């Protein structure tokens, strides 16, 4: 059996833990190293799975791994992607891909020039409700798409996410990209105009925005609106939601990405708990990355996909600054 050696760079983003669980569950994968400048952050994972630890990610890149999964703070994505590509390693990078259009174009270029694949981590494409809705759209069940209304409302994540020097932005950046990628995927079109609102309304003394609304026009005439706010309280059962209402000429599709759950409310626990019984979107996304590398086929979600969604969020901040729509 062919085995793919994969390393992980940074566990700064919490998604790294579920990505690791996905990797170790795939027989064709060997997790050959974890690099993180904070050893305590990954000690439990490296010890439990017997994975070599590297304090410097560059030392990991010197090994014979074939690919890396990057879950560092947003500001470090370009550096980590670039160094991995130059070392000949394929890349799966957490969203947002980078913090400017120029950075994302550079990341895509460097990977292409070094003959490695770049995949953006958009696991929401693998939510069962999203997959079935995309199939329905492709079959023409609702006719031509006219508009999409979406939400990616979450809880304020704290930590480095609220430090502009590390995150590059607040809720508008953090929560635009997932559902905007789905809108791009469903429409098969590019955004041509962005109008946005962002502010800090739910949490005092934040250095970034925690409230966002973004409206877009697509090249094919579809228009969309998305609530990206960190509006969920600490007591909410999960970090947020992923919903879309897709309006077509022949019908409407309502999508609730996290509907596959059992709900428990207990005074002893102090907050609601959602126990998921559905398929793991992270597992299927990581599996898609692995299968593409083993079969030498294009990765299912490219760096360009990451660029197309993140550029909308960045244009949103420009729209907020100008107080008017911004062309893309």
Automatic annotation (TrEMBL):
Stretches assigned to the GFO/IDH/MocA-like oxidoreductase domain: 131-253
One GO molecular-function entry: nucleotide binding
Name by which UniProt lists this protein: Gfo/Idh/MocA family oxidoreductase
Short name of any one Pfam family annotated for the protein: GFO_IDH_MocA_C3
Annotated Gfo/Idh/MocA-like oxidoreductase N-terminal domain residues: 16-121
SUPFAM superfamilies named among the record's database cross-references: Glyceraldehyde-3-phosphate dehydrogenase-like, C-terminal domain (SSF55347), NAD(P)-binding Rossmann-fold domains (SSF51735)
């Amino acid at each position: 059996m062919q085995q793919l050696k994969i390393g992980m760079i940074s566990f700064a983003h919490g998604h790294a833990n579920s990505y690791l669980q996905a990797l170790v569950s795939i027989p064709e994968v060997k997790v050959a190293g974890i690099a993180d400048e904070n050893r305590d952050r990954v000690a439990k994972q490296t010890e439990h799975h017997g994975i070599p630890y590297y304090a410097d990610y560059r030392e990991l890149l010197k090994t014979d791994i074939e690919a890396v999964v990057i879950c560092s703070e947003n500001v470090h994505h370009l550096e980590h992607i670039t160094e991995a590509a130059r070392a000949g390693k394929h890349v799966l990078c957490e969203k947002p891909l980078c913090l400017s259009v120029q950075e994302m174009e550079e990341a895509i270029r460097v990977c292409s020039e070094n003959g490695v694949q770049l995949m953006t981590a958009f696991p929401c494409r693998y939510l069962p409700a999203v997959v079935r809705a995309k199939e329905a759209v492709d079959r023409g069940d609702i006719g031509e798409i006219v508009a999409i209304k979406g939400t990616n409302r979450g809880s304020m994540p704290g930590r480095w996410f609220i430090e502009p020097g590390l995150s590059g932005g607040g809720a508008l950046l953090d929560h635009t990209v997932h559902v905007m990628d789905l809108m791009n995927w469903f429409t098969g079109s590019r955004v041509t105009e962005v109008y946005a609102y962002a502010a800090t309304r739910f949490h005092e003394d934040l250095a970034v925005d925690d409230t966002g609304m973004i409206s877009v026009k697509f090249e094919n005439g579809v228009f969309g609106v998305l609530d990206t706010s960190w509006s969920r309280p600490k007591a909410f059962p999960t970090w947020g939601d992923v919903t879309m209402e897709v309006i077509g000429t022949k019908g409407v599709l309502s999508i609730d990405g996290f509907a596959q759950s059992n709900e428990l409310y207990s005074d002893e626990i102090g907050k609601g708990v959602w126990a998921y019984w559905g398929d793991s979107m992270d597992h299927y996304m990581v599996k898609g990355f692995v299968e593409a590398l083993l079969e030498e086929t294009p990765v299912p979600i490219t760096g360009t996909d990451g660029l197309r969604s993140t550029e909308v969020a960045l244009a949103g901040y420009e729209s907020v600054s100008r107080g008017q729509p911004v062309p893309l």
